[in-house]
Design goal:
Four copies of one chain form a homotetramer.
Chain A lengths: L13 H7 L2 H4 L3 H17 L5 H19 L12 H13 L12 H37 L4 E6 L2 E7 H26 L1 E2 L16 H8 L3 E2 L3 H6 L2 H27 L7 E2 L18 H24 L14 H24 L1 E2 L1 H7 L6 H10 L4 H18 L8 H7 L6 H5 L2 H7 L8 H16 L1
Parallel strand pairs in A: 3-4
Antiparallel strand pairs in A: 1-2, 5-6
Helix pairs in contact in A: 3-4, 3-6, 3-8, 4-5, 6-7, 6-12, 6-19, 7-10, 7-19, 10-11, 10-12, 11-12, 14-15
C-alpha cells in the first residue's frame, strides 16, 4: 500500500518496486526530511492551514521521529518506498490521522529537492573542512621541508631545480581553487525549492517561502516552480567539483607513487600508509596513493552519469531525476575518506633529502648558462644553442657541467669566462628566480605567507 | 593483523584501512574464491607440493566453508581486508596451520583475477537468460499485435506507416546484437589467470595450468603471467556491453513513455508498472520506463569509470585495479532488475489500436504518390516535388490526401489518373514494402521466423 | 629545423611530427600570442634586458605580424610546429637576429598558458553575449505568449496547468545559472602564468609580473610557477560549463521537438528552421533541435576527454596538456553556432494556442479538488484519496471532471457542495498558485520583472 | 536550394545551415557514396525500374565522378548540404535529368548508413594492418632484447625479476585482444542497410537486397528496415575498440616514459622520437609517448560522446545520428598516426642493459626464499613471515640478501642451510617460473612461438 495507490487495480510488480524504491539511498536524507517538514508545518500554520494545536502536535511528532533517527531507533518498513513516505507513515503512527495534513500544498518533487539541497549544504561544509585539512598538511610540509632542493620535472625529465616547498605549494594552490569552487557549490545549493508543489507552485497562496528559506538556512526561494523541481545543477556542479579535485589528487598521488619507487627513492611512506604482499615478503606498496589515483576515475564516471541522465529530459520532473543521488552520495563518501587519508599520509611521510640531493642532474643548469650569455648581450635563441652544445660536450666527455674545465666552455663559445663556473651553484640558480611566483627562497617565503592568508579566510 | 604485516612497525591507519579494504564488495566473490582454492589445492597436490592427506583436509575445510557461505552462516571479521584473506583466515580456524600451505605459489593478484572471471562467466549466463526473456517478450508482442498499423516516425514526425510488429522487431534485433556481444564477453572472460603468481608466474614449475583451466571451466590459461594479472579487458567489455544495452533500452523506454502520454495515447501500462503522485490524485506515471532510461546514464558512467581508472597504469598490477569490481557489480545488478521489469511491462501493456489508427496522417503516403509517378516514367526527383505540391494543395484546402478530388491532383500534374485514388490505402502502402526487411506483412512474417530461429540458437 | 634541435642527430620522424605539431589548432591563438609577446618585450625592457631601441624594433615587428594575421596575409611554414614557433620565425624574418632576444626568460610552457587564458577571456565575453541573446528570446516569448495556458507535465503526463510564459521562464533561469557560471570561468581564467618560465619561474628577477598582468588584462599573476604551467582548471571549468549548458539546451530542444509532433501540435517551427526529406515529400523535420540535443553528447564527451587527459599527470608540464585545446575550441565553436540558432528558432516559432487549449485534461484539476476538501478541514492525505475516486468515477462514466454532475461528486464524498463546480476553472486554478515562484499570473509578472533585472546586470 | 525544399516558404537560416550541413565531415564518404550508388542503380535496373541504357548512362556518370574524386578534381558547391546531395547534384550536371531517377526507392537514411559501414569495413582493414605492425614491433623487441632481466613491478615497486622479452609480450597479448575485437567490429559492420528506405523498406518490392549486399561486400542485408536506419552499434563498438586500445597504449606509453627518466634510465629513445625545449637546452623529452598517453582521454571522450548522443533517441532516424561520424573519423585518424609512430619508436629505442641490471633489487628474491622453506615442508604463510624477517635483517645491516652471511639466515630460522645461498641467483629465480605463461626462458620461448602463430593468422 503506497501513498498514491488506493485506487490501483493491482499492487506494484515486486521487481519494479525494487527498481522504483529510493529508500535504500535516500534514507540518508532522513534528518533533512524531518527538518524540512517541521519548517513546512510551521509555514502551513502561518498560512492559516494548520491550527496552533495541530502544529504543536505535528512538531512534537516530528521531533520524536528526529530523536528516533538520531538514536538509531527508527525502523523502516518494507512498504516505505522513499524517505518521505517513511517519515509520513511514522508520523501517522505517532500522532494519528492529523499526520495526513502535513503533505498539504507540497509534493515529493519540491520536498526531495529541498532535502537534497539541505544535505548538500551540510556536506559542503564538512568537505571544506577536510579539504582545509589537506591544504594545511601541504603547508606544513612546505615549512618542514624548507631548504630541500628537488629536481623540477617537465615531461618527467629533470628540468630545473626547485625548492621542495615550492612543489608542495603548487599542489596547495590547485586545492585552493577547489575550495573556492566548493564554496560556490554551497552558495548555489542554497536556493529553496519548497513551496513549488509538483511543478506549478503550492496551491496555497499564503505560504511564505521567504520565511521558509530563512528558517531552513537558504538564501532565497527559487523564483520559478517548474525550474525548482527539475534543477539539478547544484548536484552536477558538486560532481564536477569532486571530479576535478579527484584529478588534482591523482596528480599528486602519481608523483608520490613515483617518488616512493626504489629508482627515485625521494620519500618513504609511513608503515601506517602502506600495505604488503600476500606472496612477496619484501614488498611495501603505496596502496592508498594508488586508490586515490583510481578514485579520480570513479569521480569522473559519476559526473558523466549525472550529465547523461539529465540529457534530453523533457518535463518539469521526470523520475530519471531519482538517479541523481547515488552518484552524489558516493562521491561525497569517497572524498570524506580520501582527503583525511592523504592528509595523514603527508603528515607522516619521510623525505630522503640525501637521496634527492644525489639525484640532481647538473645539466638542469643549462638554462642558467644560456641566461649567462644573454646577460653578455647574446640573443637568447643563440645562447640556447650554445648552452646545448656545452651540455653535449660535457656528456661526450663523461663529465657533469660542474666538472667541465673552462677551456672546454670557451672552446664552445668565447664569451664564457671564469665567472661561468660560479654560476654552477644550485642556490644561485634558485636565487635568480626571485620574481613573484618563482622558486627563489625569498619568493617562496612570500608565497607561503599568501597561502596562509587565503586559507585563514 | 593482516596476512602481510607481521613485520610492520605500526598497524594501518584506520581510515586508510577503510579505503583499502575490498571486502565490502568482493565478498560477493566468496563462492568463486573457494572454488578456485579447491582447484588450486588440487593442482598443488598434483605438483607434489601437498600430500594426499593434506589435500583432503584442505578440501574438506573449504567445502565446509562453502556450506557456511551458501547457508549464510559465514561470519566476516573486522580484520578481513578482502575475501581471500577472509577465506584463508577461516580455513585456518577450521583446519589449523595446514591452511597456511594453500597460498603456496599463488598471489592474490592471480587469485582475484580468477575469481572475477569465474563470476563474470556465471553472470553472463544469467544475464543472457534475462536478455532472452526480454527478446521473447518483444517477439510475443510482435505476434499479439499483428495487424496494427503504426505511424512510423523519423525525426519524431510521422513518416511512413509500419506494422507495429515490425517496430517491436526492430528492438528485437538491437537486443540480438547485444546478446551476441554478451556471448563474446563470456568467451573472452574464459581465460585462466591462476598460476601467474604476482606477475612472474608461479614459482612451482610443475603446476599444470591447463588442467586447472579445464577443472574450473576456462577454455585455456592466459599465455603471459604479467598480462594475466593486469588484464581487465573482460570487465571493460562487459561494461561496454552493459552501456550499449542500456542505450538500446533507453531508446525503447523513451518511445514507450511518449506512447503513454495523453497526446499519443498509443499504449496503456498495466497498473503494476506505474506509480501515482503523492500530491496529484489523477496521475499514473511510467516510472519504471523513466528509470530504465536513466540507467543508461548510470551504465555509461560505469564504463567511463573503468576506462579512466585503467588509463596510464604502468605496471603489472597496481592497486587501482581493485576499483574494477564495484562498477561491474553495479552494472550487473542494474540489468538483472531492469531486464525482467521491462519484460513484464511489455507482457502486460495494452495497445490502444483505435487510437493508433486515428492518429495516422494520410500524408504519410506522399512517398507512394511519388513512386506512383516514378512508375509512370517520371524521374523520382521530379516526382518528389510534384507529390510535395499535392500535399501542400490538400493542406491548403483543409483536406487529407484521401479527400482530395482527382481534378485537384491533375491540376498539380497531368500524369495523375483515377488509379491514384486506389493508391491511398494503408494495406497497399505496406504491401509495396515487401523486399527483405521491409514492413509488408509477408516480409515481416519471414522476419519473425528468422528472429525465432536466431533466438532458439 | 626546430627551435630546439640544433644538436639533434636526426630530424623528427615525419608521422611523429604530425602527432606532435599543434599548429593546426593553436594557430587560432595567433593574435593572443603576439599580444602576449608585445607585453613580454615590454617587461624585458623594464627589467633592463632589452634596450629601448630593441624594444621598439621588436614591437614594430610584432605589430606588423599582427597586421598580417588580421588581414589574412600571414603564411605558415611546414617547419612551424606551433604558433609560438611560427611567430618567432616570422619575427626573425622581419627584424633579423634581434628576434632571438624575445624568448629570454620565458618558455613555451608559460607562453601557451597565457595565450590560452587570453583567448578564454575573450571567448567567455562572446559566449556570454550569445547566451544573453538566448535568454532575451525566452523573455520575449514569455511576454508574447502571455495568457496561453499549457498543460504542465511531470513524467511527461499532464500534471497541472501552467502559464506558457512560466514554462519559458523556467528555461530562462537555467540559462541564468549558466551565465553566472560563465562569469566565474572568465574570472578564474584571468590569472597570469607569464613569467613562470618552464616551471621554476623566469630566470630574471626584475621581471614585474604584476604590471604584465595589468597590461594584458589579467587580475593578478599566478602565485606559483609550477602550478602556473600545469593548471588547466579554467579549461575544465569551461568544458563543464559548456556541458551543463548543453544539457539545458537538450532539455529545451527535447520538449520543443515533442511539441512540434503531429500528436502534440503545440508549436510550428518557421520554415527557416526545418528541413525536409530527400524521399518523403510531406516531411518537415525539426533538425536544428535534434542537432542541439545531440550536441549535449558532444560537449559531455569533451569534458570527459579533458578530465581523463589530466588524470594522473605527474609533473609540472607534460606534453599531454597540448591536447587541452581541441576540445575547448570545438566546444566554443559549437555553442557559438547553437546559441544564436536556438534564439532565432524561438523568435520565429508559432504557438498553436487553440490546439494547446484543446489538449488540456480537466483531471489536472484533481489536486485542486483535494485542496478544496482540505479547506473544509479534511486531512490532505484523505482528500487526495477522495479526489482520486472522483477522477475514477468520471472516467468510468466517460465524462470529464467538468461534466460530472454534483450528485456523483457527493456520492463519493458528502463534503462536496455546489461550489465545487465553480472550482473547475483554469484561471481559478492558476490564481491559487500565487505564492512566490508559482504560476499565477501575478506571480509570473513579478518573476518576469526579476528576470529582466538580473539580465540587465 | 536543397533537394527537399522546393515548396519551402523561406530558405534555411544561414547559421542553421552551418549547424545542419554535414558536408564538412561526410565528404570523406564520397567514394563509398558513389560505389553505393552504382550498386543501387544496378539493383534498380534488375528490379525493372531503370532501363538498360539508363543504367549505362548513370553508371558512366558515376564513374566519371569517381575519377574526379580520386584525382581531386571534384568541386563542392555551397549549396551541397551533404555528400549525397553533392553527388546527386554533380550527376545531374554530368548526365542531365536522368540523374533524378537514381534516388528512386532509397532515402538518405539508408544511404548514409551504407556509406558509413562501407567506410568502416575499409578502415578496420587499414587499422588492423597498423595494429599488426605494432604487434610485430613488440615481437621484434622480445627477440632482440632476449636475455635482459628487468625488475618486474607491482604497485610500481620492484616485485620479482622478469625477462624483458616477457614484459614486451605482455603488451603484445593486450593488442592481440584488440585485434580480435577489431575483426568483430568489421564483421558486425558488414550488414547492409541499403534497401530500407527512410525506415519502412524500399517502396519497390523487386529490389534484391541479397545481391546488393554481395555486390558491395556485405555479408547480408539487415533484416529489419527500422533497425537498419537507426542502428549505430557498429560505430559504438568501433569507438569502444579504439578507447580500450588507447588505454592499452597509454599503459605502455606510461611505462616507457618512466623508463626514459634519468632515475630509471632503462631505455633511450631515438632522437627522431623526442623533442627538446625552447627554453632549456639540455632537455630531451618523450613527447610522442605523452601524446599517446593523452590520446586515450581523447578516445574515451569520443566513446562517451556517441553513447550519450544515442541515449533516449525515440524514433527510427533522428537527426542526432548525424553526429555519429565526427567522433569515429577522429578516432580512426588518431590511431592511424599513433600506431605507426609507436611502432617506429619501439623499433628504434635503445635498451640500457647495464643500467637495468644495476637497478635490480636482490630482495625481489624473497618469494623464492619463502618457496625454499615451503620445499622444506614449512607452510607458506609461515615461510612468508620468515622470509620477511630475513629481508628486514639484511636491511638493518645495510646488506643485500646476497651479502647476508649464513649465520644471519639461520638466526632467523634454523631451516636455512648452505644451499639457500645458491638460491640467490637471478637465472635460477627465472627458471623456477617455467609453468605455462611464466617468465622462465623456456616458457617465454614457447610463448613467443604462440604469439607468432596467432599473428600469422
Amino acid at each position: 500500500m503506497k501513498l498514491w495507490n488506493a485506487h490501483w487495480s493491482t499492487s506494484m510488480d515486486e521487481l519494479t518496486a525494487r527498481l522504483n524504491d529510493s529508500l535504500p539511498f535516500d534514507q540518508r536524507l532522513a534528518i533533512q526530511d524531518v527538518r524540512g517538514s517541521i519548517a513546512w508545518a510551521s509555514a502551513l500554520h502561518k498560512a492559516g492551514i494548520l491550527q496552533e494545536g495541530e502544529l504543536a502536535r505535528i512538531v512534537a511528532g516530528l521531533s520524536q521521529i528526529l530523536d528516533e533517527l538520531e538514536e538509531g531507533r527508527f525502523t523502516f518498513q518494507p512498504s516505505d518506498e522513499d524517505i518521505h513516505t517513511a517519515i509520513e507513515r511514522r508520523l501517522g503512527e505517532v500522532i494519528g490521522a492529523l499526520a495526513g495534513k502535513l503533505h498539504t500544498g507540497r509534493s515529493r518533487n519540491d520536498q526531495v529537492a529541498t532535502d537534497f539541497r539541505l544535505w548538500m549544504m551540510e556536506t559542503c561544509d564538512q568537505l571544506e573542512s577536510a579539504l582545509c585539512g589537506l591544504q594545511k598538511a601541504l603547508l606544513a610540509r612546505a615549512e618542514t621541508d624548507w631548504g630541500v632542493i628537488l629536481p623540477g620535472y617537465t615531461h618527467f625529465q629533470q628540468a630545473q631545480p626547485v625548492l621542495l616547498s615550492h612543489w608542495w605549494l603548487a599542489h596547495f594552490w590547485a586545492l585552493e581553487r577547489d575550495r573556492q569552487r566548493l564554496k560556490a557549490v554551497r552558495e548555489h545549493s542554497a536556493m529553496l525549492p519548497l513551496g513549488s508543489g509538483a511543478l506549478a507552485g503550492t496551491g496555497f497562496a499564503t505560504i511564505d517561502r521567504f520565511t521558509l528559506a530563512e528558517q531552513l538556512g537558504f538564501s532565497a526561494p527559487v523564483p520559478n516552480s517548474i525550474d525548482a523541481v527539475c534543477d539539478r545543477d547544484f548536484a552536477a556542479e558538486f560532481l564536477f567539483w569532486a571530479a576535478l579535485l579527484g584529478v588534482h589528487l591523482s596528480r599528486l598521488a602519481e608523483a608520490l607513487i613515483l617518488y616512493t619507487t626504489r629508482e627515485f627513492g625521494f620519500i618513504t611512506l609511513d608503515d601506517a600508509y602502506t600495505t604488503g604482499s600476500s606472496l612477496m615478503p619484501q614488498k611495501k606498496n603505496p596502496d592508498p596513493l594508488e586508490l586515490i589515483r583510481a578514485k579520480s576515475g570513479v569521480l569522473i564516471g559519476k559526473l558523466t552519469t549525472l550529465l547523461t541522465i539529465l540529457k534530453g529530459l523533457p518535463s518539469a520532473y521526470d523520475k530519471d531525476l531519482q538517479e541523481d543521488k547515488p552518484p552524489v552520495f558516493e562521491a561525497a563518501d569517497t572524498l570524506a575518506v580520501v582527503l583525511p587519508v592523504l592528509s595523514g599520509l603527508l603528515n607522516t611521510l619521510k623525505i630522503n633529502s640525501e637521496r634527492i640531493h644525489q639525484s640532481l642532474d647538473w645539466s638542469m643548469l643549462a638554462t642558467d648558462v644560456a641566461d649567462y650569455l644573454v646577460e653578455k648581450g647574446i640573443p637568447f635563441r643563440q645562447a640556447h644553442s650554445v648552452a646545448a652544445r656545452v651540455v653535449q660536450r660535457a656528456a661526450s666527455l663523461g663529465l657533469s657541467l660542474r666538472e667541465l674545465p673552462l677551456d672546454e666552455w670557451r672552446a664552445v663559445h668565447p664569451a664564457f669566462e671564469q665567472d661561468v663556473l660560479s654560476l654552477l651553484d644550485l642556490s644561485h640558480c634558485l636565487d635568480r628566480r626571485a620574481a613573484f611566483g618563482g622558486t627563489a627562497p625569498g619568493a617562496v617565503r612570500k608565497q607561503l605567507e599568501l597561502a596562509r592568508t587565503v586559507l585563514a579566510d
